[in-house]
Amino acid sequence: MKTSRIEAAWGGQAECQGCSIRDLALFADLQASDFNLIHLPIDELSLDPGQAVYHAEDEGHAVFTLRSGLIKLVQYLPDGSQRIVRLLRPGDTLGLEILVGQTYEHSALVLRPALLCRIPQDVVNRLSVETPRLHSQLMKRWHQSVRQADEWLTELSTGNAKARVARLLLTLASTGQQLAGRDSTGRDAVPYCRPTRLEDSEAYCDLFSREDVGAMLGVTTETASRTIAEFRRQGVLTDVQLNRYRCDIPALRRIAGDI
Amino acid sequence: MKTSRIEAAWGGQAECQGCSIRDLALFADLQASDFNLIHLPIDELSLDPGQAVYHAEDEGHAVFTLRSGLIKLVQYLPDGSQRIVRLLRPGDTLGLEILVGQTYEHSALVLRPALLCRIPQDVVNRLSVETPRLHSQLMKRWHQSVRQADEWLTELSTGNAKARVARLLLTLASTGQQLAGRDSTGRDAVPYCRPTRLEDSEAYCDLFSREDVGAMLGVTTETASRTIAEFRRQGVLTDVQLNRYRCDIPALRRIAGDI
DNA sequence: CGTAACATTGACGTCATTCAAGCGGTGTGG
DNA sequence: CCACACCGCTTGAATGACGTCAATGTTACG
């Protein structure tokens, strides 16, 4: 894990204000004067696949903004098996729950090389009482979490395995995943996969390990593998590179039951 | 639907402050002075099972606090089938999403006779900028929604049908459902089912229609029916009255896989 | 080159869905 | 008051889907 301090932000100005994804992030609505209220360092961290941002039950004193990469939120069941409850993409906020409780409620594990900003809880609290512009962003973030949780339930945990995999592919394709790369500030930049418009009849989409696909959909690894393999044989998915496919959107729609 | 206006609350004082469930509700932390900021009427409404508080996609300008009864939040799938994504109990808040968007995102349908307070969006907004005490409650409410959504996914949408039904019964029993009755302000009051402590080896629990049970767990009505019927034959559930059962908690735990 | 980790596939058993029928209660109209 | 229709719950039988266990193939990496 590499950590670098954004000194400028600590000073109160710059970096955060000039951040290339600020319009996506928690601080989107902040004004110049608001940044003077930041009195603690905002660290930037870079994590590789498999590493954890935090673990469930950990005591935490920071929320995170994901700048680039992909992260899974995992919840463990009493029997030890795991269920992925959400995916986080650039602009998303992690760990909001510590603003209400003390501990993180999921494990946040990196799926694709991730760059994050660590925002101390005190910074959020301070801004929270000083400026209403953060409130509205906080509300939006919470709202987004609830919406994603509900969608996850109705779209990815309902119906048969084929329909679930198809819906997963559709959501992955339509949200426009990042191709690879590290961040979007310029350095190491790699072109984004342009967000697929739903009108397109084909799109590209990166998949994860079959185990993760299973844990997202509430099916076994084998079922996930079988279903994806069948899609490939049927030509609904075409290999582009390892775990990257071209998707036949209309076919997926049909399978997903969206008619 | 019966509606009565709480004039006193409109005046800014009384009713809300003296509300018997205020410590549970959105206004829990408000202080006397804060109530002066309420410049719009807070209506109280009483709904019967089957009626809707609001429908998905409706434009909305109010949030609701549930005073008594039970409400389901339903999301419809493209194919017309429905999935219940959350249950709301006394003290819970409905419709928070209109503070961020314009429309409600679920249909809120009454399962057991319900009494609600309708809080105009403007009241929340006004209080929101004036007092931080509402913020923290709003955050708690959002947090609660996310938590329940995540639990719903990991506990009620994972594992086989027997385990799911068992977990549903456990959550219903441990949250202490209301027996019947209309509200908790005195009139028509009926004793609550004392919240079951997890140490108890048996508890009582009210169930809903098999169709609803199925829609909560992501299984068919028949599977829900068969599973419940089997639990009754095995003595895990014992009839007390129509759709009210005594539960053998340790047995349910075993079936749920909590070991 | 060998090993480990992951993906695929097969065979089999179990479980859930589907379609259909029967049962019991409730409400309505004759 | 009875007959009938209706609705929700239960149950059965057949089918299909998914989970399980195990073997094989594939890729990546030391």
TrEMBL record, chains A, B:
Keywords: DNA-binding, Kinase, Transcription, Transcription regulation, Transferase
Entry keyword Repeat: no
An annotated GO cellular component: cytosol
Name of the protein: cAMP-binding domain of CRP or a regulatory subunit of cAMP-dependent protein kinases
Lineage, top ranks: Bacteria, Pseudomonadati, Pseudomonadota, Alphaproteobacteria, Rhodospirillales
PANTHER family per record: CRP FAMILY TRANSCRIPTIONAL REGULATORY PROTEIN, LISTERIOLYSIN REGULATORY PROTEIN
Pfam families on file: cNMP_binding, HTH_Crp_2
Domain Cyclic nucleotide-binding: start-end pairs: 26-110
Keyword Magnesium recorded: no
GO molecular function: DNA binding; DNA-binding transcription factor activity; kinase activity
SMART domains on file: cNMP
Cited InterPro entries: cNMP-bd_dom, cNMP-bd_dom_sf, Env_Response_Regulators, HTH_CRP, RmlC-like_jellyroll, WH-like_DNA-bd_sf, WH_DNA-bd_sf
Species of provenance: Insolitispirillum peregrinum
